Amino acid sequence: MGLQVSSRCFFSTGSLNSGNDDDNVGEGRRLEIDDDDFLPERPELQLQGVDPRKGWNFRGVHRAILCGKVGQAPVQKILRNGKTVTTFTVGTGGMFDQRTVGANDLPKPAQWHRIAVHNPMLGGYAVQQLVKNSSVYVEGDIETRVYNDSINGDIKSIPEICVRRDGM
User: Which GO terms describe its biological process (predicted)?
Assistant: First the structure.
């Protein structure tokens, strides 16, 4: 199955005919071009299985999109392997209907999310621009970081939103 596109263009100073110069080239004449040669045929898409037992090709979708307020100002840390990571928190929720004011209309508690930015350029931008209570839009992968607590030796896990590459 091929794809055919027909284009129209207007010309005023030339001819596409190489052998016949008898044609008068006037302003505003239409030229029809079939773009069969420009657009190659696309192969048929084949369905691919999504089986997590087949290896690392299946990643799944573990994404989060947050719009909220910065709770803790971003802090940039340098890890032992030399990479930088910037962490801050974002609060979502905690809003109430302002049209009706009363004792029963208390705000819902805010949900706090830990954000880890692994891109050094984006992390530097976050440190410079984000302050407490500024609005922010964050999109990243949901990951769980596991570490050993140095104080009591317990193994702890923290869910966080990891922003990698270009901010996605």
Answer: mitochondrial DNA replication
Phi, psi of 123, rounded to the nearest 5 degrees:
-65, -40
Contact 65, 90 (CB under 8 A): no
Residue listed under structure tokens 């010309």: 11
Quick: pLDDT tens for 87-139: 999 999 876 555 566 656 666 788 999 999 999 999 999 999 999 999 999 99
Question: b/e for 130-144, b at 16 or more Cβ within 10 A?
Answer: beeeeebebebbeee
Report how far residue 17's alpha carbon sits from residue 31's, in angstroms, rounded to the nearest whole number: 11
How distant, in Å, are the alpha carbons of 49, 53, 146 from that of 56? 13, 9, 20
**Domains of the chain: residue spans and CATH:** 1-44 (no CATH), 63-97+106-163 (2.40.50.140)
Give the pair of three-digit tokens for residue 91. 């609060």
Strands (E), the chain: 6-11, 29-34, 63-78, 84-93, 110-117, 135-148, 155-163
Check: CB of residue 93 under 8 Å from CB of residue 110.
yes
